[in-house]
Amino acid sequence: MVFAAPGEALARAEEVLGDRPAPLHASVAHQVIGIWQRDFGDMRLALSHLRRARAWAARADSAEREADVLATLGVALVHAGRTRQGMDALGRGVERGTGHTRARVLFRRAYSWWVLGHHKEALEDVRRAIPVLRQAEDVIWTARALTLRATVHLALGSVERANADFTAAEALWDTTGQEHDKADAVESRGLAAFRAGDVPAALRLLDEAEERYAKLGTPTFMLDIRRCEVLMAAGLAAEALAEADAALRALDGIGGQSTRKAELLLAAARAARLAGEPQTAIARAALAVRLFAGQRRTWWETHARLVLIGARHAAGRGSGRLVADAAAVAERLAALGAPAAPEASLLAGRIALDLGWTADAERHLAVAARSRRGGPPLARMTGWAAQALRAQSAGSARGVLEACRRGLDVLDDHRMTLGASELRARATAQGAELAALAQRASLVSGGPRRLLVWSERWRATALSAPPTRPPADPALLSGMTAYREIAARAEEARMEGRPVPALEREQRRLEREIRSRTLHMRGEAPDDGDRFDVGRLLARLGDNDDGQLVELAVLDGRVQVLLCGQGRVRRFEAGLLAAAETEAEHVQAGLRRLAHPGAQARLPVVEAAGRRLEELLLGPAAAHLGDGPVVIVPPGRLHRVPWALLPSLRERVLSVSPSASSWLRAKETAPPPGGRQVLVRGPGLATGGAEVPELADRYGGATVLEYDDATVPRVLRELDGAGLAHIAAHGAFRADGPLFSSLRMADGPLIVHDFERLDRSPYRIILSCCDTARFATVGADELLGLVTALLPLGTAGVVACSAPVNDAAVVPLMVALHEALGTGLSLAEALRDARAGLPADALHRATGWAFTAFGAA
Predict the structure, then answer these.
(1) Which residues does residue 569 pair with via DSSP β-bridges, in sequence order?
(2) Where does residue 526 fall: left (phi above 0), alpha (psi -120 to 50 degrees), or beta otherwise?
(3) How far apart are CA 795 and CA 756, in angstroms?
(4) Pairing mode, if any, of strands 851-855 and 797-801?
(5) Helix (H) or strand (E) holding 576
(6) Cα–Cα distance measured from residue 351 to residue 366, given in angstroms and rounded to the nearest whole number
(7) Helix (H, G, I), strand (E, B), or coil: what is residue 438?
(8) Measured between alpha carbons, how far is 681 from 458 in angstroms, rounded to an integer?
(9) Which residues share a beta bridge with 731?
(10) Cβ atoms 223, 243 nearer than 8 A
């Protein structure tokens, strides 16, 4: 009962002890309390009760009872970090027990071997236990033993064997009332899904297990560790670090298991390393190494040493000693049969390359490269990264490009199993090194065309296919409705000056629930293999009145300008990316000031910053742009640049695209039949959305949604498949959760997750509000925000704003923009003409610069 209904079991055990029980019953009661404290509470209390349980068993003169208690005590001692004492107790339990009892003790010793990382010994004990447990028709313990054997198989990389045991165990659990063990089975299936490379299924199953544990009121430290592992693989390293640290605080708060603390520290160290916090990773990993060593857990200690070495390397501490340490860890992991062995060999090879030790590097990289032929996607990625480094060291540009191509193909296949746009975007971080290696090799050996191809190969790939449409999940739909209601109430309370902490807590809870459910979505769209074609791009640009496309690649911190047009690709070298980012922030600050009347004196300062930005971003290429339209394809980190401020771009037709491929798709997207116009006016605008009535008169039969009609469900229904949409509403960008960036409607926020429910977003959409063109940069070079949510869903052109603007100055700009559209111009052409028609004062000029045309419509 202690696992099926832990609270009730604890109460019943305490009740038994209160009635002066016989020695046998007292032993059972103390053992139950000891198990509860061991797994859900204070280890010191657990050991105290289990020692009393053993003493009462001896008084009862029951060898079987004593064997059973010794097994429970042994597991507790192992979890407390007293490994030798724990294994001694388990050994005595095996000697004293017979038959069925002995099989249960063998199972618990197998579990302890698994905790310690001794997988061969664990398999041997559990294999001896299972036939006896089956013969005794002990369903619960047989299911536990099968679950354990599956978990050991997973640790050794045997996914198929693990799945067979999990399936058999689950069939047995269905016949019992063991709710805790059932939750554990769901958790284990989540781990198996992760090992098989199915991240969405893993997240869904782990979340389900967490819900089951919550109903039982039991802590979930093992699940926390596994969830951190999955989050890291999904590119959510910072989130994994926060979860691991929170679990560590909770574990310390109850005086919990020392073994779990060490494992949580290891998870935190891994997450910190991936999140770019090497010093945090070093601190966590060093403590984990000490704990594992004290617990005599060689398997775990070796993995912690791997993370520690990697973190030291990331912190710039390369040395011959570090190479030797990484090589020793690789050998030890290989001897233990650990799937992480190739990762250690790759690390040894990297450090050796940094030191110029090419022979040593080749030896280690050759070992790591073997993993490219099989196993989970990320293991194959490790192998291809090693192969690419080998080729680079040997001076073979062709070998580098081939290895990078194969490795990124593996990652493409993995990404397309992910349904959520956030996960697709973040997963690209795994390919950043391969993409950079290929770009360097192509720059050296292939000229501008090849550099363009590789710049495109890993740019804005999350936009290459629409995200999986969220399912018609009643819980998800009701959660989003509740989220809108709570967010609207919180906004209303803020405007009235009332406190909102309770509403904000509920809003954050609903956000977590919505995000969690969307991350469970599995990808449906296969990679169609439509690779970027330079010739196709140049032909399209030739059709575009001799337009030019400017793709900015970044190699070793410097901007490389690839100027595409007139049948050729040319390369120019510009300034440092870091300097350009700093200058872009100064420009944004300047535009914020110019949005307020009376800031005319700041105009020359902002214009001077624009000139410096042009020199850093375009360099000598600015003199070769010609007179035609220009498409800018910037790296993600430059998404906040107001491109129209740059002198050479100020008077021309200008559009921005996340990638050349994305621009081509937009160019070839046909408008929907009918060309419906939808005009939306949200609440609370300083001008009241004054351009909307004027536009309604201009378009005649347009659908106008305003006041109480501008609700999220109604707006989404009208936007779906529209030819042109204009939305005047307050925009809010969420850097901490970009897919919760929103437009304020009458019933609450219209968020990015809502747009992803559209069958087809509007062909053209104009967002006449602040911050709608702001994005979060994630993964290798991906952007998450309102605009990037629309582009894969059928939108070919967007006009949006990257800075705060003056509401009153926006109205004439928008009216002029629609007047120009009425003459048959594209969004980029219409925006250029609308800017030119504005008054020449600083307020209106800054407003024009803040808006950008995205796409090609």
Answers:
(1) 564
(2) beta
(3) 12
(4) antiparallel
(5) strand 568-576
(6) 14
(7) helix
(8) 38
(9) 743
(10) no
Tell me the C-alpha to C-alpha distance, in Å, between residue 165 and each of 473, 573, 674.
Answer: 31, 58, 57
Amino acid identity for residue 35 in this structure = I
pLDDT in tens, 110-131: 999 999 999 999 999 999 999 9
d(CA 529, CA 511): 35
**DSSP assignment letter at 671:** P
What pTM was computed for the model? 0.83
Between the two ends of the chain, the Cα-to-Cα distance in Å is: 66
User: Residue 687's pLDDT band (boundaries 50, 70, 90)?
Assistant: confident
- Residue that the structure tokens 């496309």 belong to: 549
The Cα-based distances of 342 to 329, 331, 333, 335, 431 in angstroms read 10, 10, 9, 12, 17
Return d(Cα 790, Cα 303) in angstroms, integer: 43
Listed as own residue / partner, the contacts of 688-696 with beta carbons closer than 8 Å and 24 or more positions apart are: 689/728, 689/729, 690/811, 691/726, 691/728, 691/768, 691/810, 691/811, 691/814, 691/815, 691/818, 692/726, 692/728, 694/815, 695/726, 695/814, 695/815, 695/818
Which strand (E) or helix (H) includes residue 853? strand 851-855
Q: What's the CA gap between 803 and 630, in Å, rounded?
A: 22
The contacts of residue 15 (CB under 8 Å, 6+ apart) are none
3-class SS of residue 248: helix
Q: How far is residue 250's CA from residue 807's CA, in Å, rounded to a whole number? A: 48
pLDDT at residue 465, as a whole number: 65
pLDDT tens by residue, 558-611? 999 999 998 999 999 999 999 999 999 999 999 889 988 888 888 999 999 999
Angle of helix 358-369 relative to helix 320-336, nearest 10 degrees? Answer: 20
The residue with tokens 């060309």 is 675
In the three-class reduction of DSSP (H, G, I as helix; E, B as strand; rest coil), residue 742 is classed as: strand
What is the rounded CA–CA span in Å between residue 804 and residue 739? Answer: 20
Q: In the Cβ-directed half-sphere of 754, how many Cα atoms lie within 13 Å?
A: 26
Continuous segment of H or E residues that includes residue 199 = helix 199-216
Dist. CA 153–CA 717, nearest whole Å: 50
Task: Report the b/e string of 390-424 with b at 16+ CB within 10 A.
Answer: bbbbeebbebbbbbbebbbebbbebbbbbbbbbbb
Strands 558-565 and 548-555: antiparallel
In angstroms, the Cα distances linking 515 to 215, 370, 422, 641, 753 are 21, 37, 10, 29, 9
* CA 763 – CA 603 distance, rounded (Å): 35
Q: How many CB atoms lie within 10 A of CB 674?
A: 9
Burial class (CB in 10 A: 0-12, 13-18, 19+), 8: exposed
Average pLDDT of span 671-694? 88
Tokens of 735: 């850097």
Q: Where are the extended beta strands (E) located within 593-653? A: 630-633
Q: Is the dihedral of CA 784, 787, 791, 793 positive or negative?
A: positive
What token pair was written down for 719? 């936007």
The CA distances from residue 448 to 361, 413, 440, 622, 675, in Å, are 30, 28, 11, 17, 40
Strands 797-801 and 764-767: parallel
With contact defined as beta carbons under 8 Å apart, do 852 and 799 qualify? yes
Composition of the chain by helix, strand, coil, percent to 5: 65, 10, 25
- The 8-class DSSP code of residue 471 comes to P
Instruction: Find the helix packing angle between 237-254 and 258-274, rounded to 10°.
Output: 160
Q: How far is CA 81 from CA 200, 201, 762, in A?
A: 34, 33, 61
Q: Give the pair of three-digit tokens for residue 822.
A: 């009425």
- Asked whether the beta carbons of 591 and 774 are under 8 A apart, the reply is no
Torsion of CA 388, 392, 396, 400, to 10 degrees: 30
**Mean pLDDT, rounded, of the chain:** 90
What is the Cα–Cα distance from 407 to 373, expressed in whole angstroms?
Answer: 11
Residue 681 near residue 705 (C-beta atoms within 8 A): yes
Specify the pLDDT at position 466.
66
What SS3 state is found at 764? Answer: strand
Neighbours of 708 (CB within 10 A): 10
